[in-house]
Each structure stands twice: as C-alpha cells, then as structure tokens.
Amino acid sequence: MKRQKLKALKEIARLRFANLQVYQDPDGPGWIAHGIHREHRTIWTARGRTEREALEALLGIGQEVSS
Questions:
Q1: What pTM was computed for the model?
Q2: Residue 52 has pLDDT above 60, yes or no
Q3: Between β-strands 17-24 and 43-48, what pairing exists: parallel, antiparallel or unpaired?
Q4: DSSP letter at 41?
C-alpha cells in the first residue's frame, strides 16, 4: 500500500476526529496525536517517533516492515 502524504493524513484525521491535535511530546522525543472520535464519541490518543507515525497510529494505518 502506498503511503499517504502528511497533508492527506491530517485531512483524513480531521474528518474522523473532532478537536484533533498533533504536537511534539513535551516530556521527551516523539509526537502525540489525539482527538474525539466522531462516531464512537471517545477520546483516542496515539504516539509516534514522527508526526506521520503518530497520525498513522491514531488512524490505525499499519506500517509495512520489510526484512
């Protein structure tokens, strides 16, 4: 599967989550993405080493690992 561009990931996340926020973790390296899922009405949070990884984790997009 082809990876989405960061701008496209943000747009998809904004459609699925209300009050979406993505920011650098103030307590260490990495990024945090969180928001209120529009369908389930619950708060979802995800972390990643990069902004892209945090958004992908929040959206449940798996990352392919090649060996």
A1: 0.84
A2: yes
A3: unpaired
A4: -
